[in-house]
Write a structure and sequence with these properties.
The protein is α+β, with helices and mostly antiparallel strands. It has 2 domains: 33 residues; 338 residues, Glucose Permease (Domain IIA) (Distorted Sandwich). The protein is built from 13 helices and 15 strands. The radius of gyration is 29 Å and the shape is flat. The termini are far apart. The C terminus is likely disordered.
Length: 430
Amino acid sequence: MVHAVKRHPVLCGIVILLLLVFFLIASLFSSFSNIGTGGLGSLAASTYLADDADINNAELIYTEWETDLQMQINRVESDRPGYDEYRYNIGPIEHDPYVLMGYLTSAYQDFTYAQIESVLRELFNGQYSLSFTEETEIRYRTETSIDPETGEETEEEVPYEWHILNVTLTSMPLENLVVSRMDADQKEICEILLQTKGNRQYVKNVFGTNWLPYVTSYYGYRVHPISGEKNYHTGVDIGMPQGTEILAGHDGTVTLAGNAGGYGLCVAIEGEAYEGHSLTTKYGHCSQILVSAGQEVKAGDVIAKVGSTGNSTGPHLHLEVLVDGQYRNPLYFADTGDTSERHLPAAGAGGGGNYFDYDVPPEALALLAVGGVGYYVKIVRPKQQAEDDEDFEDDGYGEGFDPDEAYGEPEYLSEDDFDDRIDDEQEDSE
């Protein structure tokens, strides 16, 4: 070795230098890979890595399963007739979409929907457990008999059976479920994602303030409060006072500025989400429009004011986000203005409650009470039919509103394929 160095000092120097450079580069890559934990870089640790369509499909299918579960509960008395009484102990049917996507990203990184569909089913089955138990009580009623010879009346307590069906839905917050499935690194990444909300906000804040607590109706599937049928909501409804200024969510061209049927006074802006991909936002139920078709706008420009035009029961903004013509969840792809610090519970934590742990301002509660009717949850056996309430209009959009006609169908899984899969899974579980 010494002789080689003496005979070829320059060559050996070059070799040593190359080795030093190699180890330096390797060290840097090692350092970068550990930033943000779990082998992901700092940017990757704060960003949803899956494609937009896969992110959207995961959220849609989960809301569809939740909707089907609610419908199953609503049909109990027709599907299981013959009981004298139905007793309901129903936990909340809801999930935090940020927790769902934070977990999927931290655990499966750049997943495809096909890869995580079984994972979603495991989460759903772990979050919800629906059970039916029969109960028979011996009750007594007073019966009167008359002696045919004397005409004397006598009363006696006669026992009879009272048949009860107990319907119990046990649910747990999704965050309590996923935390037990993650290691320390994945949990750290998930908590980062809860703060950043995935860094996929193509749409900037449309109000310049935190509007997340003011959402009165979320994106995805739900049970229609009047018809009882499955309903697809293509945007989010944000309750705001009449006349509140609405800001353009991105740069682009105004393609619609006027009356749009059920949307009422509506503005649509077309621009670019990212290179080569179109971005469209729609702003419905405005009281006043401040732009015109063909006008170029910048993000943050005042384009309209909140109203209740079209099929609406109260002042709110119906916000839609479309990428390449396909609906996306505004909570994932629009800046809500929420900067609250959120953390996952410790592994094994129980409890329930609202999965959206935000302080709702009093004015938002007032808007909810006036015009932002939310979900209908069946807790006790209903006697009054929905049609008896003349003031209750279709989903905040007015009687006769047809979401399929107004919005079109989402592009993800066909409903037939989904229903077939659900039927197969139910047969396997029976």
